[in-house]
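Lab channel / #folding
Pinned by the channel admin:
"Please post every new chain as: sequence first, then the structure tokens as a reply. Keep commentary short and put observations after the output so the thread stays searchable."

First post following the new format, from NK:
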Amino acid sequence: MSETTIDLLNRLLVIEYRSLSMYLLDATPWTHPGDEKATAALRSIVHTQRSLAQRLATAIMERGGTVETGEYPMDFAELNFLSLDFLLKELLRHGKQRIAQVELIANRMLDSEGHELALEVLGAEKAHVEMLQEFAGQPAA
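Reply from TO:
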């Protein structure tokens, strides 16, 4: 069974809308003085992801599809009340996984506008990983 443009756009939507960064903004990780820049970076990432999620939802509806936002993965609940220092490494790991997922989706997207949107999501996710690497103390990949 081949995936339709709507299926692929919905997969991208779930990647953006149900990301670990989106979850953590509501879960409020433990922070200490000096975490202000990392917290601001997390908010910036979430702002971009929300914007992209809205654009993806619009693209789905324009094609006559139903928006499917999915659920947060259950293992995210295990991360409640952890420090932002620890969670930065998790955010980075999840970000790298999202890049791989988005690349696969972009390569499967036959719809030219959908493909362009997928590439935009990919670029944003790569920028997020670069930003997180600064705060997680890891070298660029």
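NK: The radius of gyration is 15 Å.
TO: also worth noting, The mean pLDDT is 91.
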